[in-house]
Amino acid sequence: MIVKGKKPWQKYMIQVQALTKNYGQFTAANDIYFEVNPGEIFGLLGPNGAGKSTTINCISGLLNPSLGEIYINQSSVLSEAIKAKASLGLVPQDLALYEDLSGQENLNFWGQAYGLAGDQLKARIEAVLEQVGLTSRAKDLVSTYSGGMKRRLNFACAILHEPKALLLDEPTVGVDPQSREHLLTAVETLKEQGTAVLYTTHYMEEAERLCDRIAIIDHGKIIAIGTVDELRNKMGEKDLISLQGDFSDVESSVLAEYEVIEWQNHTVRFMAENAAGQLSGLLAKFPPRSIKQTSVQQANLESLFIKLTGRELRD
Length: 315
Ligand SMILES: Nc1ncnc2c1ncn2[C@@H]1O[C@H](COP(=O)(O)OP(=O)(O)O)[C@@H](O)[C@H]1O
Ligand SMILES: [Mg+2]
Hints:
By secondary structure, the chain is an alpha/beta fold. Helix content is 30%, strand content 28%.
């Protein structure tokens, strides 16, 4: 429930309450609640189309929510937009760079847009270039940068004004391993400096490495929320077993004692304790040659997502 005019609890840097965004009849974000503390990395983990960008774009004020309230550093994004945005940095999913300017010129442009000038702007530009490892390429045109370098510059533009809250929308999609490492380390440094970070991704490994808490989002709804350990515990001690093959003539009763997540002609998934130790016995329940491929996954965010939705995180 939203109490009109009531300020959020002081400690939160980002607070999202009952956020809903409809596109006509379609609900892209559905009654989303979460908050991010200073010095915390909060992850929104979900597959393509889950509603991550919609949520981030509502928080940054790019989109108007259909319902709900959003506070940044205790100011409402809806009714006190200028105040709220002063504490906010956004790394959008799509690059916001001028290709025919140098990296340094792009930073100069964004810095002025944030109200920085003179020596202060110069010092900040040097600092962020260093932070993302682009100092030696600062004077080169962005059109000569690799995809990963553009992503790093995109990130540098968003942190020039030292925002207390930073929103990152899938910042590492399609980048090379070196740029990815630069970006992840830079995010970790910001957290240590007390920034509240909202990080969206469909990469489970990134969420597990970076995030203090994670909300798993699917079809616009948060379906699980907690620390990585809390989410793993939802899987209990069970492993997820995935079988590929031809199961069209197999009775699903062969797995009567197990928790079956998915049963299709070519894919069967189920949960079992200590799966690796009893795998040959489990596979023997199936007719010979019906199984072409087997995989066993210990409890992780990917297996939790499959358990909750019956689908994989990646397309
Ligand atoms: N402007 C729009 N009009 C209609 N549907 C949209 C619009 N923008 C996004 N959507 C839909 O909303 C859903 C969520 O999209 P998005 O927030 O971009 O997901 P994600 O960032 O998690 O991949 C998708 O099904 C997408 O097709
Ligand atoms: Mg997106």
